[in-house]
Design goal:
- The structure is a single chain.
- Helices cover about 25% and strands about 20% of the residues.
- The protein is α/β, with parallel strands linked by helices.
- Strands 1, 2, 3, 4, 5, 6, 7, 8, 9 and 10 form a 10-stranded mixed beta sheet that branches.
- The structure holds zinc ion (ZN) (2 copies).
- One zinc ion binds next to loops.
C-alpha cells in the first residue's frame, strides 16, 4: 500500500538474566535476530525497590542464584553488556538494540498503594525505584530518555497480579510526563486506554522464549534511535501487530 512501506518490527520491553528473564542478553539477541524479522529491540531489565518482597522470596527459592533486578552497583556493567551486544546485533542481524530499564514497584497493595512500572529507554544513569512516579518520569526526561508506561491497566491473563495502575489512575496529572503508553502487553490488550488519544506502543514483556509470540509494534521510520524515538513520541505511523509462530499454525 503506497505510503505504508516500509515498517520496522519493534519490541521495546525485553528482560534477560540481568533481572528475572530466562535467557542471557546474548541468547535474547540471537533469538530475535535469528527470526530475520526484527528491526529494533530494547533491553529493559527490572530495577526494583530496595524492599521488593517478591524478589526477596524469589532469591530464597533460588538460593540466591538469580538476581531479579539490576542494582546501582552493577548498572554500568549492565549498560556495557548491552553496548557490546548492540554492536554484535547490528553487525550480525542488522538489528538495533536500545538500552533501557523497567523501574519497577511491587508493593503489595492493602494500604491502597498502587504501583507503577516505567520503562526508561536510552538512559545513562541508574534510576531508583524508591521514589514517586512523577520523580522517576522527571529523571527520565532529565536524562533525555524516553518513558513508557508499562501494562497501565489490569492484565486479565495474570492469575496473581500486583496492581500497576498508578499511572493510569493519575493520568490527568501525569500524562504530560509519560512519552508512550503500552496499549498491549504480551497477550493483553488494554482497550480502555484507547479511549484517551495518547501515544501507544505494544510490547512482549519478554521473559522466556514463548513470549516472542505476542503483541509488537510496527513503526514507519528510519532504523536509528533518534528516528525511532521521534516516531514513538509523534505516534502517527504506528501499528500494533500480533507476531505469531507461523510454524505451528494449523
Ligand atoms: Zn512490569
Ligand atoms: Zn517487564
Amino acid at each position: 500500500m503506497p505510503g505504508y512501506e516500509p515498517f520496522l518490527l519493534c519490541d521495546f520491553h525485553v528482560h534477560t538474566t540481568w533481572s528475572d528473564g530466562a535467557l542471557t542478553l546474548r541468547e535474547v539477541v540471537d533469538l530475535y535476530g535469528a527470526t530475520g524479522k526484527f528491526d529494533v529491540i530494547a533491553i529493559t531489565d527490572h530495577i526494583l525497590m530496595k524492599k521488593d518482597l517478591i524478589a526477596r522470596a524469589g532469591r530464597i527459592v533460588t538460593l540466591g542464584r538469580r538476581a531479579f533486578g539490576v542494582r546501582e552497583e552493577n548498572f554500568e556493567a549492565y549498560l556495557d553488556d548491552i553496548r557490546k551486544e548492540a554492536e554484535r546485533a547490528k553487525a550480525q542481524y542488522g538489528m538495533l538494540v536500545i538500552p533501557g530499564a523497567e523501574i519497577t514497584q511491587n508493593r503489595i497493595s492493602g494500604k491502597g498503594k498502587k504501583n507503577s512500572h516505567i520503562i526508561a529507554l536510552d538512559i545513562q544513569e541508574y534510576i531508583s525505584a524508591d521514589q514517586a512516579a512523577d520523580e522517576i518520569l522527571r529523571d527520565i526526561r532529565r536524562q533525555n530518555g524516553l518513558s513508557i508506561a508499562c501494562h497501565p491497566h489490569h492484565r486479565t491473563t495474570r492469575r496473581i497480579e500486583v496492581s500497576t495502575c498508578y499511572l493510569w489512575d493519575h493520568r490527568e496529572e501525569l500524562a504530560g510526563l509519560v512519552d508512550v503508553w503500552e496499549a498491549a502487553n504480551r497477550d493483553d490488550l488494554f482497550s480502555v486506554t484507547s479511549l484517551k488519544h495518547y501515544p501507544y506502543v505494544a510490547n512482549s514483556d519478554f521473559h522466556k522464549p514463548k513470549h516472542l509470540y505476542s503483541w509488537k509494534t510496527l513503526l514507519r521510520c528510519e532504523k536509528s534511535w533518534p528516528a525511532v524515538k521521534e516516531a514513538l513520541r509523534h505516534n502517527v505511523d504506528v501499528a500494533l501487530t500480533l507476531f505469531r509462530d507461523g510454524s505451528s499454525a494449523a
